[in-house]
Write a structure and sequence with these properties.
globular, alpha/beta, TIM Barrel, 11 helices, 8-stranded parallel barrel
Length: 328
């Protein structure tokens, strides 16, 4: 039986510092405000190396750990996971879990397949999924007790007992899968979703229509049943965009500017924006947010696309959230 509470998260635009959307000080202030408000249960940052440059995710989360006390801290998602050596990542992430007091959530994915970035690390696009799988398996082994003996396709370890271990046992690893193709008739999407159930502690997605999400979640539940896995505590997370402004045109234009700067090589299509962006007056934003909850999302994580991050957070807490919780 799966009956999870709604846990709202805040996504910080750590790439936005590089193009003037926000400042480092505002990012930290936003995280503090989110925790103090009591409305947000988690704070997240994005991750990339060369493809979409930004302030480093682990450095950001370490700083956030020192500025907060209760919220979970995570990556949404770690697109660089296949590029990172699992031993180095195991040590860094376990250290983050210690300095945060056991609040780290590693959201991982195969990344975007940016060829120049892959070449810089001596990898190919075909290796991304197998590196993700082997990397997760190796992380879990390194975070367990005893010595690790691992002979894999990409990594070999003999008699290694790596320290530190995370505070959380197990330390949660969520997997992001955001295909732009439908599940039906796509073995590739099926394999990706099966991987989430087989290896992950939670599921992350972004712009997806309600019917398509339900099909994917139904498929994942069938996979879990075949594997004998209980999904009672398994969180489903959507990374959604929001811009609160009575002038809907301004909200949309600010969001378009954000998308063009954040995703310059592949900005989202109008179709994607319709399922991804809640914009306009508070009651208009609440409609899409309620739709996410109704389709089975337990953990909605919001990225504010307006230039005044703090004002947007306050408006969400004071004006939008009450409408989502108690729709008129």
């Amino acid at each position: 039986m799966r009956d999870l509470p709604t846990r709202w998260g805040l996504s910080l635009p750590n790439r936005g510092v590089l193009f003037g959307l926000t400042t480092v000080e505002d990012l930290f202030a936003s995280a503090t405000l989110a925790e103090e408000s009591g409305a947000f249960e988690s704070v997240w940052v994005g991750d990339s190396f060369i493809h979409k440059p930004r302030l480093d995710s682990i450095v950001m989360l370490s700083n956030l750990a020192a500025r907060t006390e209760r919220v979970r801290l995570g990556t949404i998602c770690m697109a660089t996971f296949p590029l990172r050596h699992p031993v180095e990542l195991a040590i860094q992430w376990a250290s983050l879990d210690h300095v945060s007091g056991g609040r780290a959530v590693l959201g991982a994915c195969i990344g975007g397949g940016h060829e120049p970035e892959l070449r810089a690390f001596g990898q190919t696009s075909r290796e991304r999924a197998p590196r993700l799988e082997e990397g997760i398996a190796l992380l879990r082994a390194l975070w367990s007790d005893g010595k690790v003996h691992h002979q894999g396709r990409f990594y070999t370890l003999e008699d290694y007992d790596i320290l530190p271990k995370p505070v959380q046992r197990p330390c949660p690893i969520w997997i992001a899968v955001n295909p732009r193709r439908p599940l039906e008739g796509s073995p590739l999407v099926e394999r990706a979703l099966e991987r989430v159930i087989r290896l992950g502690d939670g599921y992350m997605t972004d712009a997806v229509a309600p019917d398509e999400f339900r099909r994917r979640w139904d498929f994942m539940q069938r996979v879990a049943q075949r594997q004998g896995r209980d999904l009672g505590g398994f969180e489903t997370c959507i990374h959604g965009m929001i811009n609160i402004n009575e002038d809907k045109r301004v909200a949309y234009e600010e969001s378009k500017h954000y998308f063009q700067e954040y995703y310059p090589l592949a900005p989202p299509s109008e179709e994607v924006i319709r399922t991804w962006l809640a914009y306009g007056a508070p009651e208009e934003c609440a409609v899409l947010l309620r739709e996410w909850l109704d389709m089975g999302i337990s953990t909605p994580v919001l990225r504010f696309t307006g230039p005044d991050q703090l004002a947007q957070i306050r408006r969400f807490v004071e004006e939008v959230l009450p409408l989502v919780s108690c729709p008129t």
